[in-house]
Amino acid sequence: MNQSPTRARGASSNPNEMRVYGVNACNALWQERAASIIRVYVTADRMAQFGPLLKWCAKHKKAYHVVDDEGLAKVAQSVHHEGVLILTQAQQPLGDDDCLDALGRRKGPTVVLYLDGVQNPHNVGAIVRLAAHFGVSMILGAEGELPRLTPAAARIAEGGMEHVQLAILKKPKAVITELRALGFKLIGTSSHVQDSLYANPLPERSILVIGGEVEGASGRLLAFCDEVRAIPGTGNVESLNVAAATGIFLAEFWREHHQAGGGTARL
């Protein structure tokens, strides 16, 4: 253990490693994949709360450092660290084949997200949190467009990233075509169409297309969708925040396919 913040090692810039900070995000990481932990940083006022984690670190010969707020802010590169940070091995996204294999094995009602141009870390983190809450196992996106989770997004996800996989697709159109053969429907979301989210039940196997914060989903992608739906409202604002809209769609899918039977199965 190192109790001097000036001597504590900074978090690595290795792309195979990731800084995860925030109480809920760090607790979830420890519970779900402790073996990936490289080292831990805590402030003195979090030592009692994370005592079991620090004991685990000592037992498994993982370094941990007790630092002050300023020292932890330097390591986290953020003042929103909540007094704890874990340097961990980064989770690797799925590729095209692994995505198809994973979704091909799923039975029953299944919904996944396809992000098109969503880049803001706060929105990405909020969407991952929503996905975890509603049992969405995977978020898809095109290579070069779907962002990997940043430390800020991981904190906002409040542990959700431990339950949701990213799939970065080299050939998204080909993957979607194969998913259609497995019974999936591509459902676009847009504030510029007349068809209401609530007009008909969402397909039991759905890929929801969530567009970017400013432009929404691309016209080319929406044209490729099986259908496009809007969230009805007053029209007093042009559209909803992307994370808020995602939550409404996922809540409706859950209501239609799970709530009636009282089930709690993961989607």
Helix content: 25-40%
Q: State the helix count.
A: 9
Question: What is the percentage of strand-forming residues?
Answer: 15-25%
User: Helices and strands: which structural class?
Assistant: alpha/beta
- In N-to-C order, the SSE pattern is EHEHEHEHEHEHEHEEHEH
User: Gyration radius, to the nearest Å?
Assistant: 20 Å
Outline type: elongated
How would a crystallographer describe the biggest sheet?
Answer: 6 strands, parallel
Assembly category: single chain
Across the major sheet, the strand order is 7-6-5-9-8-10
The average pLDDT value, as a whole number, equals 91
Give unreliable regions as ranges.
Answer: 1-11, 262-267
Separation, N- and C-terminal Cα atoms: 41 Å
Number of strands: 10
Summed up:
The chain is of the alpha/beta class. It has helices at residues 23-33, 51-59, 69-76, 96-104, 121-133, 151-156, 172-181, 219-224, 242-257; strands at 17-21, 37-43, 63-67, 84-89, 110-116, 138-142, 165-169, 185-189, 205-211, 227-229.
Keywords:
267 residues, alpha/beta, six-stranded parallel β-sheet, four-stranded mixed β-sheet, 9 helices, 33% helix, disordered C terminus
Structural overview:
The protein is of the alpha/beta class and 267 residues long. The chain is 33% helix and 21% strand. The protein has nine helices and ten strands. Strands 7-6-5-9-8-10 form a six-stranded parallel sheet, sandwiched between helices. A four-stranded mixed sheet has the order 1-4-2-3. The radius of gyration is 20 Å and the shape is elongated. The N and C termini lie far apart (41 Å).
